[in-house]
Amino acid sequence: MQIIFATGNQGKLREIRAILKDANVEVLSMAEAGFTGDIEENGTTFEENALIKARTIAKETGLLTLADDSGLVIDYLNGEPGIYSARYLGENTPHSVKNPNLIARMQSVPDEKRTARFVCAVAAVLPDGTERTVQATMEGRIAYKEAGENGFGYDPIFYLPEYDCTSAQLSPEEKNKISHRGKALRAMCKLLSDEHII
């Protein structure tokens, strides 16, 4: 069964395909499904933004569409960058700029106040317009310096105390087991499977 995942992010797509490899679905990107338009993510929550993306693509293609909206929430910075994680410091600003900026803003903050989490909301929109959403988190702290070559985005600055490393230092398999996206996608797959949709 073909499903579309509403993303153009190749790192995210690789991760999603790895997480869903046992789900008996073929995951197409927006481009592979022939969608080339822009989607304005103007929701106020991760869930709203995920639904906006999934609704737009499902309406255009008529296929079961999944979308996620995810981001980094830093408690000390009042939840920043939050739903603006992708657009933090402006559209298309690379993480080589974003990550050092966040580390600098947290420079003198002690361990116990460096708490943060990755949040992922996954929305599914079925061809008949039925909608489902799930949300999951991965708890950690903001690291004092970047570390790790795996992962993408904010992974090099997201420290996991129980593993004594950043999420960019985990293997992709390890990360997918514990990540916000891994948990949310598995929950969504279970929900769609229980309802005999996939």
Molecular structure report:
With 198 residues, the chain is an alpha/beta fold. It has five helices and seven strands, in the order βαβαβαββββαα. The chain has helices at residues 10-19, 46-61, 95-105, 172-178, 180-194; strands at residues 2-5, 26-28, 65-74, 115-125, 131-142, 158-160, 165-166. Strands 2-1-3-4-5-6-7 form a seven-stranded mixed β-sheet. Helix 4 (172-178) packs across helix 5. The model has no long low-confidence stretch (mean pLDDT 93).
Key structural traits:
globular, 198 residues, 7-stranded mixed β-sheet, alpha/beta, Maf protein, 5 helices
Short description:
With 198 residues, this protein is of the alpha/beta class. Helices cover 30% and strands 23% of the residues. It has a single domain, classed as Maf protein.
Tell me the number of helical segments per DSSP (H or I, 4 or more residues long): 5
Q: How far is the N terminus from the C terminus?
A: 7 Å
Strand order of the largest sheet: 2-1-3-4-5-6-7
Helicity, as a percent range:
25-40%
Which regions are unreliable across 5 or more consecutive residues at pLDDT < 50?
none
CA-based gyration radius: 17 Å
**Per CATH, which architecture?**
Alpha-Beta Complex
What structural class is derived from the secondary structure elements? alpha/beta
Return the average pLDDT rounded to an integer: 93
Order of helices and strands: EHEHEHEEEEHH
Largest sheet: 7 strands, mixed
Strand content: 15-25%
Question: How many strands?
Answer: 7
CATH-assigned fold name? Maf protein
* Whole-number total of structural domains: 1
- Name the shape in a single word: globular
What's the level 1 CATH class? Alpha Beta
